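re: that chain from earlier
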Amino acid sequence: MRIQYNKLWKLLIDKDMKKVDLKNAAKISSNSIAKLSKNEPVRMDVLMKIAIALDCKVEDLFETVIT
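^ sequence. v structure.
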C-alpha cells in the first residue's frame, strides 16, 4: 500500500496556490514539501498543519493505493 497526494495538488490548483505558498501558509519545512512531492509519508502533524492552512480535512489531502 502506498500514499498519493494527488488530492492535495488538485486542492492547491483550485486555490491558485503554489508549493511555496503552501509551505509558508502551513509553516512546514521544504523537506516536508519534498516528501509530499515524492508521495512519501509525512508526519500527521504536518498533514494537520496543511489541513488547517487549506481549511479542509486531513482525509482531503491524500489517498492510499493498494499496489
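The chain has one domain: 2-65.
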